[in-house]
Amino acid sequence: MATLHDVAKRANxxxxxxxxxxxxxxxxxxxxxxNILNVMAELNYQPNAAARALVSRRTRVVKLTIFEDMDxxxxxxxxxxxxxxxxxxxxxxALQLATSNSYKVGECDGYILTGIREKNYAWVEQxxxxxxxxxxxxxxxDYVDTDNYQAIQDSVAYAVQCGYDNLVFVGIAVxxxxxxxxxxxxxxxxxxxxxxxxxxxxxxxxxxATDYLRQHWLEFPKNTAFICASDRLAxxxxxxxxxQGGNVPNDYGVVGFDGVxxxxxxxxxxxxxxxxxxxxxxxxxxxxxxxxxHPQTTEQEKIIINSRLSISESTR
Amino acid sequence: MATLHDVAKRANxxxxxxxxxxxxxxxxxxxxxxNILNVMAELNYQPNAAARALVSRRTRVVKLTIFEDMDxxxxxxxxxxxxxxxxxxxxxxALQLATSNSYKVGECDGYILTGIREKNYAWVEQxxxxxxxxxxxxxxxDYVDTDNYQAIQDSVAYAVQCGYDNLVFVGIAVxxxxxxxxxxxxxxxxxxxxxxxxxxxxxxxxxxATDYLRQHWLEFPKNTAFICASDRLAxxxxxxxxxQGGNVPNDYGVVGFDGVxxxxxxxxxxxxxxxxxxxxxxxxxxxxxxxxxHPQTTEQEKIIINSRLSISESTR
DNA sequence: CTGTTAGCGCCTTCAG
DNA sequence: CTGAAGGCGCTAACAG
Lengths: 316, 316
What we know:
Two copies of one chain form a homodimer.
Chain A lengths: L3 H8 L3 H9 L6 H13 L6 H8 L4 E6 L9 H15 L3 E6 L10 E5 L6 H5 L5 E4 L7 E5 L1 H14 L4 E7 L4 H16 L3 E7 L3 H10 L8 E5 L2 H13 L8 E7 L3 H4 L5 E4 L2 H17 L8 E4 L2 E3 L6
Parallel strand pairs in A: 1-2, 1-3, 3-4, 4-5, 5-11, 6-7, 6-8, 8-9, 9-10
Antiparallel strand pairs in A: 10-12
Helix pairs in contact in A: 1-2, 1-3, 5-12, 7-8, 9-10
Chain A binds a DNA duplex through α2 and α4.
């Protein structure tokens, strides 16, 4: 592996000049600089991350903590992970995946946090490194999220446009910002447009949605669209409709939320609000790296990324 | 953050002695050593990974490459990841997640490889760092895997014990060791026990299994058990049976394979061969770290971990 | 068994 | 704009 020293010798300059050519390009004469860059390319020079880490007192590690049972972890975390690591790789940063029981082990330069519960906030507040959340929180931390409010509005608008005239929002029974935003998006839309509507809240399990539908089947006339807060619920609803003899999508529409993996599993592929998770992962990583580089910034950063409706077989 | 120097001063020894107390305990007088350890604890000393990496010419990074579309990635990778990182964290190692388009970026001390295709072997062979595969390959690389042969035998044995007398193996139409092992496990078992049986091979998608079942429904009498090579197929089969009016589990049994996440989605929760993925991930990481520490070892290491049948609602 | 010396590769600081 | 010196925290190699 080529080092600064090798490049310097070959380019007839000192190590420092090479170092500067990389980190402070403005401080090196342009011609010299291009020459150095050429030599670097020739030698396939790669800066040594450990040496940089040592001198800059950085670990070059970012920790991603997922405060959820891995067992029940949504598959979409994989996409998120892919996005995060793609971005980190480009900056010679490595990842440390921490789970709810190991989140205190090891050093890092910053954290990407997700699935946080109330009781973890004390730990978060005491962290000295910068933090970025995946998903909005109640606190004033930086975060990356989809526009849940807008996304549900788009879903409902689409359902209405399909001609469904009874709108049901199937929410997740949890007191979290993402859920409240989605619910509010629904309420506002049906309110403004004077639509028949209803909101139900269920635990986020397919079979619970199926059971609910069985028990309340008669309350849902033809031409009902179910706007669901997750693909799990959407699949459960869809199964329930089919088991009750309902026709999807002609008499009943189903719209999911997430758009990763699960929508491929449904018997009628789900129309779903697809979150660009890879992009969101990258954004979270980029934001965190920026904060690591410039820790002084004080204002809260919010990155809102738009979801896109992926239309499939569960709506007409 | 405390350094070797701080500990040394406080313990009235040189840095080297402290270093040795950590890395070569045998070379330090026992009493001195315990004293040093105490001081380390007092100061909450954590060795600086970057400095170690620099001097030992290691990166302290392990790369995990997943040669699959993240989009269709099985959710169980999350469990695998959890296992790997739990083990790495304990050894001050970080992770670098590489996907099929970024697998050449960055340095590392070793690789955990999965989802490899024929065309990637050239790249693998040219790697200078140690490699561990997740899942057996055709080549003589070290690997961690479940005992696919045994697992399917157990599945069939259980189905027989349930009283199903027509056994159908629903395999994945792919020419891979894991699949051939599973198929062989099935064939050997039904052969030795002179059972009615049949093997079909399908692309690994739920709806394809459902379609297949619809088209061939009449060929499957009551008392048939479907032993599936994946939970996706199992869910598809189960859906198909139910749509044809068949009774699960009374008249038809379904057994899946994997046991992560998907089995929770099925309308009748799947009986499935549950792979201990967290454990497998840890094992892979541990094996790799051992190879990094002792690169000379030449013999192929195979770690085979047993799966366990998780009995649920899709068998009687 | 313990200490001293030197250096891993890079960057900050200070001279030129 | 460029170079020389020194040190980040740790450990291998050699003295004692």
